[in-house]
């Protein structure tokens, strides 16, 4: 069955309006929220403009000039920027293209009867900067192979540069040998992407920073942290009531960076002993959470065993409320039943991985990273650095 992906043209909204119409928060069908803005001084003691990454209202003149060049190029039909989506997360790719005021490139993707993947570009990309949006989320092997075939199609179509936009990088957890005779699959996948013809990789919240070193091509590593921080700033929680919790020792650096953005909120650590893959046992808590609002921060939630056992421990230690914040919602069974069991006041995720309708539950909030990725894509295309505020967290040198 063929899968033909392209955006429907919109003639009623100019590029700037399309960007502002891109939703930042997604809920289940029963409760949809509109884009959120936080311009006031927030209750954490800092100005929320520091977190306000997603719109051009607070952007400096250099960023606005870069954006103006994009709008002029689109208006005059001279832009060499092309965005294509695989079948893994077309809704995120559509949001990215809308933010940039572009239409998704036309591409035909189908599976043969024996499962082989066929890809054909339906428009010319000769001399263009091509960005392929395809997370390698479940089914990881299918989506990874599809990405490789898409890269090969673009290379053979004489694209000037090919950037693999991988919001969620599968196999990232297999980044080292913990036992003898194990594979390092993250390095293998990096080699596959490089050898298929990609010139650059854009990834969001890799499981570990050393995974960037597995690629022999440039890697732009962006973080979903600003999106989550912007949302938390809107909730008006007093900084005196906050404590940031790392669900395991390996996530301490991530939690510390998160706590620093929340006016140096105190840090707590859950000591976890793992007895097997996807099996965790909580031992004890390092830090004080009594009477506090605990913000648990992790890069991904898979089966939710680690974070749910950690939340139970926090409640036992006297935490008033527990929030779970993560970028990648893998949600392998029985994650939904664990997360919706009442342990969490709210579970905050992003849309790097598409979420099926049956996996929504009342405590779930889904934030969009489309604007974050779109800003990064434009800076890569425009040879513009990300070291200017408010884009300093984009990770572009």
From TrEMBL:
GO terms for biological process: 5-phosphoribose 1-diphosphate biosynthetic process; purine nucleotide biosynthetic process; ribonucleoside monophosphate biosynthetic process. It comes from the Eukaryota. Its EC number is 2.7.6.1. GO terms for cellular component: cytoplasm; ribose phosphate diphosphokinase complex. Keywords: ATP-binding, Kinase, Magnesium, Metal-binding, Nucleotide biosynthesis, Nucleotide-binding, Transferase. InterPro entries: PRib_PP_synth_CS, Pribosyltran_N, PRTase-like, PRTase_dom, Rib-P_diPkinase, Rib-P_diPkinase_bac. Transmembrane segments: none annotated. Residues 82-197 form the Ribose-phosphate pyrophosphokinase N-terminal domain. Pfam families: Pribosyl_synth (PF14572), Pribosyltran_N (PF13793). It catalyses: D-ribose 5-phosphate + ATP = 5-phospho-alpha-D-ribose 1-diphosphate + AMP + H(+). GO terms for molecular function: ATP binding; kinase activity; magnesium ion binding; ribose phosphate diphosphokinase activity. Belongs to the ribose-phosphate pyrophosphokinase family. This is ribose-phosphate diphosphokinase.
């Amino acid at each position: 069955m063929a899968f033909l992906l392209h955006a429907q043209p919109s003639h009623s909204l100019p590029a700037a309006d399309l960007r502002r119409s891109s939703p930042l928060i997604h809920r289940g069908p029963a409760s949809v929220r509109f884009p959120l803005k936080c311009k006031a001084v927030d209750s954490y003691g800092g100005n929320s403009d520091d977190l306000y990454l997603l719109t051009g209202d607070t952007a400096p003149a250099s960023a606005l000039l870069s954006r103006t060049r994009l709008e002029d190029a689109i208006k005059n039909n001279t832009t060499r920027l092309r965005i294509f989506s695989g079948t893994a997360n077309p809704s995120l790719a559509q949001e990215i293209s809308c933010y940039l005021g572009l239409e998704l490139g036309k591409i035909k993707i189908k599976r043969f009867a024996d499962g082989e993947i066929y890809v054909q570009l339906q428009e010319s990309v000769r001399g263009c900067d091509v960005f392929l949006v395809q997370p390698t989320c479940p089914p990881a092997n299918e989506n990874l192979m599809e990405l490789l075939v898409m890269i090969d199609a673009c290379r053979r179509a004489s694209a000037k540069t090919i950037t693999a936009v991988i919001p969620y990088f599968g196999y990232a957890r297999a980044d080292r040998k913990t036992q003898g005779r194990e594979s390092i699959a993250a390095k293998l996948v990096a080699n596959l992407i490089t050898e298929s013809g990609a010139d650059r990789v854009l990834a969001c919240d890799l499981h570990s920073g050393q995974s960037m070193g597995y690629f022999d091509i440039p890697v732009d590593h962006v973080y979903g942290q600003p999106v989550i921080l912007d949302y938390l700033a809107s909730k008006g929680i007093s900084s005196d009531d906050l404590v940031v919790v790392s669900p395991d020792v390996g996530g301490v650096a991530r939690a510390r960076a998160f706590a620093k953005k929340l006016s140096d909120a105190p840090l707590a650590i859950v000591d976890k002993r793992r007895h097997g893959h996807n099996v965790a046992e909580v031992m004890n808590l390092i830090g004080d959470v009594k009477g506090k609002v605990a913000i648990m921060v992790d890069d991904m939630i898979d089966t939710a065993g680690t974070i749910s056992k950690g939340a139970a421990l926090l409640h036992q230690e006297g935490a008033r409320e527990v929030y779970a914040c993560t970028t990648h919602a893998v949600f392998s069974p029985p994650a939904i039943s664990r997360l919706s069991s009442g342990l969490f006041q709210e579970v905050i995720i992003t849309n790097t991985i598409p979420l099926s309708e049956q996996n929504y539950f009342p405590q779930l909030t889904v934030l969009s990273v489309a604007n974050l990725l779109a800003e990064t894509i434009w800076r890569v295309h425009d040879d513009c650095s990300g070291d200017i505020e408010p884009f300093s967290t984009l990770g572009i040198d």
